[in-house]
């Protein structure tokens, strides 16, 4: 006679305290002969299962399309997207490739902004927290090499196209703000121009709380050019050194030292296609929303 095949369940339902049938330990339990029920010591539960906490917890990250991604949180200090306070790079923590790219860029940033000083510096302004030096066309080669390193860094942060050259190299002058801890905290590159185009302001004046949205709006310029003398090609301040009037001090140094023996008026200065933050700065420094621009797209 053939025995019937044995069937085994493929899926086991989750065990809950109410449906658990696991056999408790015999220690401390008494089974009377007259009853098949289990008796536990006073104050204990026969079906009590101690709760075990997992060393890791799960966090759900919901995507816009409704899908969910489970991310394991092991108590790491940094999690997800991280913005470096020093170099300003945004990278994904715990991602090997991102961390390697950040480490490479961070080293380059530190090397580029480090400045021990030169023997023959053209110091334009001196402050308690630093100084402003100028590098002109007649500066030594090592000075121009340093300017090119800083310019490449500035172009990356401002979003300039790689290889974007200056039109008036013969009149190009670079102003660097050197902090008291021997670091390049700000940079302004100016070039000679002959004309600019005035920005057409919006009819409605933005409110104080709408400053961020205002900076993102598209803006237009007049088609008729206005005469100009100096073009601010790039102006940049290191992230940790912002909100310290460094950009304003660079602009003042430009006004007083770009042309020997004369001071530039704001009507003589134009900005090269400023970023949203640059537009806000130009408006505040010029004290008018109708400042001049050039090379705008």
TrEMBL record:
Any single biological process term in GO: mitotic sister chromatid cohesion
Predominant place of localization: nucleus
GO MF assignments: protein-lysine-acetyltransferase activity; zinc ion binding
Organism of this sequence: Stichopus japonicus (Sea cucumber)
Subcellular localization(s) per the UniProt record: Nucleus
Ranges for domain N-acetyltransferase ESCO zinc-finger: 69-108
Region listing for Disordered, in residue ranges: 1-60
Keywords annotated in UniProt: Acyltransferase, Cell cycle, Metal-binding, Nucleus, Transferase, Zinc, Zinc-finger
Keyword Acetylation: no
Name used for this protein in its record: Putative serine/arginine repetitive matrix protein 1 isoform X2
């Amino acid at each position: 006679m053939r025995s019937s095949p044995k069937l085994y369940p493929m899926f086991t339902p989750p065990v809950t305290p109410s449906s658990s049938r696991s056999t408790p330990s015999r220690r401390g339990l008494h089974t009377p002969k007259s009853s098949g029920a289990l008796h536990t010591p006073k104050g204990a539960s026969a079906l009590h299962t101690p709760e075990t906490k997992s060393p890791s917890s799960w966090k759900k990250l919901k995507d816009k399309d409704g899908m969910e991604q489970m991310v394991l949180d092991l108590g790491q200090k940094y999690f997800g997207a991280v913005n470096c306070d020093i170099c300003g790079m945004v990278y994904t923590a715990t991602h090997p490739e991102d961390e390697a790219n950040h480490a490479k860029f961070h080293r380059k940033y530190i090397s580029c902004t480090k400045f021990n000083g030169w023997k023959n510096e053209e110091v334009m302004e001196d402050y308690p927290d630093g100084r402003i030096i100028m590098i002109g066309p007649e500066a030594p080669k090592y000075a121009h090499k340093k300017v090119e390193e800083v310019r490449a860094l500035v172009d990356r942060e401002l979003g300039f196209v790689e290889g974007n050259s200056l039109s008036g190299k013969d009149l190009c002058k670079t102003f660097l703000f050197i902090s008291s801890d021997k670091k390049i905290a700000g940079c302004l590159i100016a070039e000679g121009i002959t004309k600019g185009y005035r920005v057409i302001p919006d009819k409605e004046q933005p409110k104080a709380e709408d400053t961020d949205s205002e900076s993102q709006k598209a803006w237009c310029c007049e088609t008729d050019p206005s005469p100009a003398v100096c073009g601010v090609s790039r102006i940049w301040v290191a992230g940790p050194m912002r909100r310290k009037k460094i950009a304003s001090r660079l602009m003042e140094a430009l006004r007083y030292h770009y042309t020997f023996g004369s001071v530039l008026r704001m009507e003589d200065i134009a900005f090269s296609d400023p970023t949203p933050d640059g537009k806000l700065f130009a408006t505040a420094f010029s004290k008018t929303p109708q400042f001049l621009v050039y090379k705008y797209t």
